[in-house]
Design brief:
The complex is a heterodimer of chains A (219) and B (581). Chain A contains 4 helices and 7 strands; from the N terminus they run ααββαββββαβ. By secondary structure, chain A is of the alpha+beta class. Classes of the chains: A alpha+beta (219), B alpha/beta (581). Chain A: This is Auxin-responsive protein IAA16.
Chain lengths: 219, 581
Amino acid sequence: MSQDTTVDSPESSDGASLMSFDTELTLGLPGESRSPARAPAFAQGHKKNCTKRGFMETVIDLNLGTSHISMPRGQNSESRVSGTGKYPAAKAQVTGWPPVRSFRKKTLEGSSKLVKVAVDGAPYLRKVDLQIYSSYQDLFRALEEMFTCFTTRDYNMEERKLTGALNGREYVPTYEDKDDDWMLLGDVPWKMFVESCKRIRLMKSSEAVGLAPRTPTNC
Amino acid sequence: MSYSSLPEDVLEHVFSFVQSDKDRNVISLVCKSWYEIERWCRRRIFVGNCYAVSPRMAIRRFPEVRSVELKGKPHFADFNLVPEGWGGYVYPWIRAMAGGYPWLEELKLKRMVVTDESLELIAKSLKNFKVLVLSSCEGFSTHGLAAIAADCKNLKELDLWESDVEDPSGNWLSKFPDTCTSLVSLNIACLGSEVSFSALERLVVRCPNLRTLRLNRAVPLEKLAHLLRQAPQLVELGTGTYSADLRPDIFSNLAGAFSGCKELKSLSGFWDVVPAYLPAVYSVCSGLTTLNLSYATIQSPDLIKLVSQCPKLQCLWVLDYIEDSGLEALAATCKDLRELRVFPSEPFGDEPNVSLTEQGLVLVSEGCPKLESVLYFCRRMSNDALVTIAKNRPSMIRFRLCIIDPQTPDYLTLEPLDVGFGAIVQHCKDLRRLSLSGLLTDRVFEYIGTYAKKLEMLSVAFAGESDLGLHHVLSGCDSLRKLEIMDCPFGDKALLANAAKLETMRSLWMSSCSVSFEACKLLGQKMPRLNVEVIDESGPPDSRPELPVKKLYIYRTVTGRRIDMPGFVWNVGEDSALRLS
């Protein structure tokens, strides 16, 4: 689609432009010097003194303890981002991105309690918002839909085990609470569970040795 | 008989059928007498940038206006890019209109700072005031609202769309006198604290023409049924919190109340949704045209059940909990869909928390022939998907895609998304608004400059490689009015080469780009009808001229530099050297 065009503009006498746009900037033919996985714009030839506010600089600005970035400000950013164009792992919030209105952020904040759910043997994690469920049954129904190897009838409330239909093994629903202890799901009232749960793990029965119901400290 | 010999009142009568601002502007340019006749009978003005013209000038030219719409801060203020105190104060306008437009009926403000003093002045001075819309505004409290309630005897509409309202204690709703029966629309959804339910109920009961009622979160679900039974004529309803203990009596009461609302076309609210209560609205679903579930944290299966019952749906706002499966159901059921907005439930998370991908959007583009307006947050995209969407929906008018991780490439090929967005602008010839995201080179801007001839607003972040990108847009987009750019390597060349273009646009925002202070100064000096404002909270920008300016806002104006700039905003025009610190 693009042709070999040079971009040129009239001199500035009519005020239309305050400088001519030189022919040194040209569009190339398709396929010419366009590599697929290119380094991001930040790392491309800028003016030497360009202090492009990149992700890294913002992290420095935010004084995050987690960052192990040691490059001084004001330098060209060639070294800081790898060729994949992805931001490094230590994620920080860049002001203005993603473009979500603060009104919306504020309203959703505090209205969700997201925890990770891991199932032993399953290849991926899911996240659930505990606040949208009103009981353990609700939660298990949702987990069933997510990790389709279970069905609710496999849940044995008495023995607090889930039977995986796929491989017939039993799973014990456990969670890590605020005190970093691993507990059995179902011991404490639902609301207390929502408040204290940090994440959930459906553990293979064979590994769930030694987990005992916790005596509630305040009833 | 020539047109110029038609009597004035005939011409005026003819002009009264012309409502659009653009057409009115054209009429006023025909000849001097038409200009005069037209300006005396213009009833409505829209000022897209409150600093483009002074209130005095507006009132002088159009003395008989009944409706004024003003916008203040730049759009990126929504995302915290504009510091507090930047400006956008409405008070000078209200003061001028109190004298100049004593019969003003409508005032619509967006992104402006509105004080209680301003609201009190409206209430005191404008005797025929009927409509107040404060969209994304701030600076006022319920004291100001109390003044409006108490003194605007003919109030029809009070709409506080997503405004930031201080809530000191004080029961402002009960300030509506018993004689006030004229309310047609009340939107208090953004209010953080409780309003008196009894005052609300009495108001609803005595206003038989009430068609829009958007409650705030504090109104409990148990009381909603009662309110609905008092106002079965409602066309638009925003619920309060949609959560209550699971009780069959509450449910049947609610379901019964909803089934009595035969005119209901629009639903919103749904904070804290308990899914068990959703079926209470099923009876109205068949008539719904607008559904705003963007605060409803419910999962895909419940969303599918709801949406599948709304065949007349034209506008859906929803969280990404809807997932691809929910969008598939939407595409299958809602053949009348015009607008879809999918918001992120976890915009700052590291990993995807929902199964929403480009597939959902592709499915909707296939299944919904009237789709014309899209806002879509997701975490992956491909050129193929964008090309498919473009070919499916050439009638697209607004397309805003936000791939959450900056500079994300095509997930299938790892290439930039230039070709995909290129297809959008090439096929969608009427595209008016576009927001880009993902990995993008200068090429996408070449496509945009070449094809997007009707584009009026473009939003760009983390894209492009050089000034050529910006140059393509400024030189190619004939209809461009607003351009907002953050974190792109665009600098002086393109800006200066297209200086005249800036006078044909409403505004240009550039933050964290590569524009030098020198270039800003040059622009400000050479272009007297532009305000070139540099925002820098760390000190005068000319003290470190080797650094690019952090934030730049350029807009056309006929009134010169504004007088309400805070200390961190510099107008770099000719007298910038004389500016007192």
